[in-house]
Write a structure and sequence with these properties.
The complex is a heterodimer of chains A (116) and B (109).
Chain A (H helix, E strand, L loop, with lengths): L3 E4 L2 E4 L5 E7 L5 E7 L5 E6 L7 E2 L10 E5 L2 E6 L8 E8 L9 E2 L3 E5 L1
Parallel strand pairs in A: 2-11
Antiparallel strand pairs in A: 1-3, 3-8, 4-5, 4-9, 5-6, 7-8, 9-10, 9-11
Chain B lengths: L3 E4 L2 E5 L4 E7 L6 E7 L5 E8 L4 E4 L2 E6 L4 E6 L8 E8 L3 E3 L3 E6 L1
Parallel strand pairs in B: 2-11
Antiparallel strand pairs in B: 1-3, 3-8, 4-5, 4-9, 6-7, 7-8, 9-10, 9-11
The chains are: A mainly beta (116), B mainly beta (109).
Chain lengths: 116, 109
């Protein structure tokens, strides 16, 4: 397993601003993912963030809106840019210890974002 | 495009009852299927992982089965307890996970 922390745990932001969410893992992991959970909805994959390569975005998500950094094997950031109320969601990072898509995925506690 | 469906959306049972949660997926080309629970205001807790080559996995009172050919998985909870009350999510793994909308379980004392 892995112990994952996220900062901030929650935030309230104004329309048009940006917020950077941090994800820290207690061990080195190759595969890291970012998800969004909109109110009353299930989780949707935003992007895959593997160290040493550009993030891969899912359909409907673009780098200009959700830039991701992955500077090392224990850390990643997701920025939500030029926010609107529709961006109000819980944002979660997850990791796959040991690498490989066959292995169990573990999630951080999430960042609850409210955009006014 | 993979789609994951969970039935029922909500379930309320008395304590001690055995229950089954259902999950179906449209694309059988998955690496694995994972079951999670989500408690209000908290993150996801991984319950069980079934590899694509496996038929079932067990952990305590939980048993999950996988039938890739029919695109179905079930989570069986034995002797339910009030502490089992949560939303249960199934997720099919390709690269990242594709989630169902969940089953909200309430176990009444």
């Amino acid at each position: 397993s892995a112990v994952i922390s996220q900062k901030p745990s929650r935030d309230i932001c104004q329309r048009g601003t940006s917020l950077t969410i941090q994800c820290q893992v207690d061990s080195q992991v190759t595969m890291m993912f970012w998800y969004r959970q909109q109110p009353g909805q299930s989780l949707t994959l935003i992007a895959t963030a593997n160290q040493g390569s550009e993030a891969t975005y899912e359909s409907g998500f673009v780098i200009d809106k959700f830039p991701i950094s992955r500077p090392n094997l224990t850390f990643s950031t997701l920025t939500v840019s030029n926010m609107s109320p529709e961006d109000s969601s819980i944002y979660l990072c997850s990791v796959v210890p040991g690498g490989g898509s066959y292995n169990e995925q573990f999630f951080g506690p999430g960042t609850r974002l409210t955009v006014l | 495009k993979q789609e994951v469906t969970q039935i029922p959306a909500a379930l309320s049972v008395p304590e001690g009852e055995n229950l089954v949660l259902n999950c179906s997926f449209t694309d059988s080309a998955i690496y694995n299927l994972q079951w999670f629970r989500q408690d209000p205001g908290k993150g996801l807790t991984s319950l069980l992982l079934i590899q694509s080559s496996q038929r079932e996995q067990t952990s305590g009172r939980l048993n999950a089965s996988l039938d890739k050919s029919s695109g179905r998985s079930t989570l069986y909870i034995a002797a339910s307890q009030p502490g089992d009350s949560a939303t249960y999510l199934c997720a099919a793994s390709l690269v990242g996970l594709v989630f169902g909308k969940g089953t909200k379980l309430t176990v009444n004392p």
